[in-house]
From TrEMBL:
InterPro entries in the cross-refs: NUDIX_hydrolase-like_dom_sf, NUDIX_hydrolase_dom, Nudix_hydrolase_domain
Lineage of the organism: Bacteria, Bacillati, Actinomycetota, Actinomycetes, Micrococcales
All residue ranges annotated as the Nudix hydrolase domain in the record: 1-150
Organism field: Microbacterium pumilum
Protein name: NUDIX domain-containing protein
Superkingdom of the source species: Bacteria
Amino acid sequence: MITSAGILLYRLTPGPEVLIAHMGGPYWSGKDAGAWSIPKGEFVEGDETALDAAHREFEEELGVAAPDVPYAELGTFAYSSGKRVTMFIGDGARFEAPTEGFGEFELEWPPRSGRKASFPEVDRAEWASLDDARERLVKGQRPAIDVLEERLRAAS
């Protein structure tokens, strides 16, 4: 089973917003709905904690460290593929979404060409309202927004 961990930053300005990142590479270019992600990535359980992996992946994808704030586990969410993603939330009120310096990955492009090309893991990051995030995030991450909204409602 594939396991991943991620960080979902939120801020209250005046309504809640979350930090989401548009996936990089040629497949996602020009797409918006379902083409965004919460910064996250795979890890091997036992090699590092889920929270450590979430911090590592945040920095690898966005090119900057996650803010030094307390984090709470939001839950583990299963994708239809069987992948499981553990999400952590943190108050990102003072965090500015980066505009450059994103991590990169290599991909054979064009397909079956034998040539490798580098692409950014994400090509932009921005704050979005919860409703916008639900529309723009990949399907498997949308339940995390619902749980965050419930927690924020319960805390107010």
